[in-house]
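Box 4.2: Ligand-aware structure prediction
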Amino acid sequence: MVIVMNKNATPAQIEHVVAALIDKNFDVHRSTGVSRTVIGAIGDKHAFDEREFLVLDGVSEVVRITEPYKLASRTFQQEDTVIEISGVKIGGDEVIVMAGPCAVESTEQIQAIASAVKSSGAKILRGGAFKPRTSPYSFQGLGEEGLKIMRKAADDHALLVVSEIMDQSQVELMVGYCDILQVGARNMQNFDLLKSLGKINTPILLKRGMSATIEETLMSAEYIMAGGNYQVIICERGIRTFEKYTRNTMDISSIPVIQKLSHLPIIADPSHGTGIRNKVAPMARAAVAAGAHGLQIEVHNDPDHAASDGAQSLYPEQFAQLMTECRLIAGAINKSM
Ligand code: PEP
Ligand code: MN
């Protein structure tokens, strides 16, 4: 449930409500709402009568959150969440672009790509150091060495770093190198991993599972938030359907649907969403038009020889062109890029 305090509620009244909630075994979460204090209380839905809280001094309203996800819901927080990382704001009116190779392969590769994507306007460098591959014989990533060379390339070009974490044992290592930790589609319901990410302060990019419903995706965000880490960005990356002409089916409609249900930022990954280079730009443009807060795009300086996902990686010139087009679309819906 959500307890909305009066605009002029005193700190003592707020503390009293918090104490009453803790006394009834609720988990208490304060929303970052601007105009008044909103207290989120998560607990057993049958074991209380909300009037107990409605009568407390300073309380204006008590609202039950009917969705199974609580902290991630718009009922809990009406205003959009904006996640700020070293001056880059994700979730506001600027469309933020994360770009880079599927996998970090070498210093030369990542430096060349970092330079190209930065000059086209990307703010965040993407690249996997730990790769979740369908085959155990495929390139598995450079591990810590990959993180090191990506961090250096990002710092050299004033970019942030997003990279995928595959296991909770990697948390300590990865927070030392990354500004955002990505949870891949295959790990969206790795609940132990999600719980461990709830305990850190690093923002999380949570990719929709390839067979996950929107509700399941928001429940995974809830796992992270329930642990105390509210900095979750959702990523639509396509879902598996009966269609075979694309690698996945890019669910553009999930963008406005999630924006209605949740205050969390939502970005789109049309690279994995389509799996085919010449389909990436149309879907990227569509995602910006649909209101995505950002894009994640695979870009490679030599896609024909990429260690992974070359067929869906853009050439730097294609990426530059795409950025120009998306900027026009963003402007048409009163956003910047
Ligand atoms: C990736 O970003 O390279 C990746 C493996 O993405 P996903 O988890 O969406 O398949
Ligand atoms: Mn990839």
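In the box above, the bound molecule is manganese (II) ion. The two ends are 37 Å apart (CA to CA).
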